[in-house]
Amino acid sequence: MSGQRLLQVKDLEVRFPIREGLIRERTVAEVRAVDGVSFEVAKGEILGLVGESGCGKSTVARAITRVVKPTHGSIEFDGHDLAKAEGEELHALRRRVQMIFQDPYASLNPRMTVGAIIQEPADIYKVGTTAERRARVSELLGLVGLDPRFADRYPHEFSGGQRQRIGVARALALNPDLVVADEPVSALDVSVQAQILNLLAELRQQLGLAYLFIAHDLSVVRHISDRTAVMYLGKIVEVAPSIELNAAPLHPYSIALLSAVPIPDPAIEKKRKRIILKGDVPSPTNPPSGCGFQTRCWLKEKLGNPERCSTESPVLRETSSGHQVACHFPEKA
Fold first, then answer.
1. To 10 degrees, what angle do helices 160-172 and 114-125 make?
2. pLDDT tens string for the chain (333 positions)?
3. What gap in Å lies between CA 58 and CA 61, rounded to an integer?
4. What is the DSSP string of 165-178?
């Protein structure tokens, strides 16, 4: 990571209790949604967080924005620990960390006009006069490529791509430093995805924003992110500059993910080896011992099932400048 650090997440854990009993008074197990995640985001940087459904990406996003409270660990944002902040301190910090949600159809209140939706954050924080807030709504609509005259319309009058632009405008209403984008293009058509990705990149240049960009599609993350972190079963297994990770991944899971991304060259595609992972992702209520990926790891089978993979959890360690991997045998992959 280069540049001044804006966000540092360290040993983050989020666990959800499973309760039983007449009034659900007994805790019988825990879902380890996020299990010891650490990463950093610099000012003006885009960090992509990628992994398959259920790995804990969205829970990380909700912990950073304090939609859920972390069970353990720290979320240091510009010198303040978001994990421990409460009351007025948390209220002030939330203004600087905003979120773009995955579903543009469910994240906008159908009973409010677009102008009211975008203006609501300024109303809550009492920013400016009423006239200034309305002017800000027009400015934001123009910034995301929509006609300011649309402010009096309702969400159902817009397409999915337009609704997501409205969601982006709402996230920018309070001039945040960090935007957490939780799969902001996964519900959109491919052509519209490109438009939203280009918009986010342009806004980063104009406003100096930092993004935590969450997705399950590596090709999308590669297009927009400076660095990429790969997540599996609640843990980060690899972090590297996006170009380097796509060219030379080290973790067996990252290699398998990239082998599934199609290449628009029939000659290369024909020669490429596809890695098919066996079995299902283990349950986060009862993760396997040792490495969380060892029950599906093709490298472990190739090496003859070394005992270390089943007994010792690998630590995220640096193998080269800016490239970290949590694997006992990355050089064998």
1. 20
2. 567 999 999 999 999 999 988 888 888 889 999 999 999 999 999 999 999 888 999 999 999 999 999 999 999 999 999 999 999 999 999 999 999 999 988 999 999 999 999 999 999 999 999 999 999 999 999 999 999 999 999 999 999 999 999 999 999 999 999 999 999 998 888 889 999 999 999 999 999 999 999 998 888 898 899 999 999 999 999 999 999 999 999 999 999 999 888 777 777 767 777 888 988 889 999 999 999 999 999 999 899 989 999 999 999 999 988 899 999 999 987
3. 5
4. HHHHHHHHTT--SE
Written as one letter, the residue type at 162 is: Q
Contact status, residue 55 vs residue 281, Cβ threshold 8 Å: yes
Say if pTM beats, i.e. exceeds, 0.85. Answer: yes
> What sign does the CA torsion over 220, 225, 231, 237 have?
positive
CB under 8 Å, gap of 24 or more: what pairs does 33-36 form? 33/59, 33/234, 33/284, 34/59, 34/60, 34/63, 34/70, 34/234, 35/233, 35/234, 35/235, 35/284, 35/287, 36/11, 36/12, 36/73, 36/234, 36/235
Sheet holding 72-77, edge to edge: 26-42, 5-20, 72-77, 80-81
268 token code pair: 């290369």
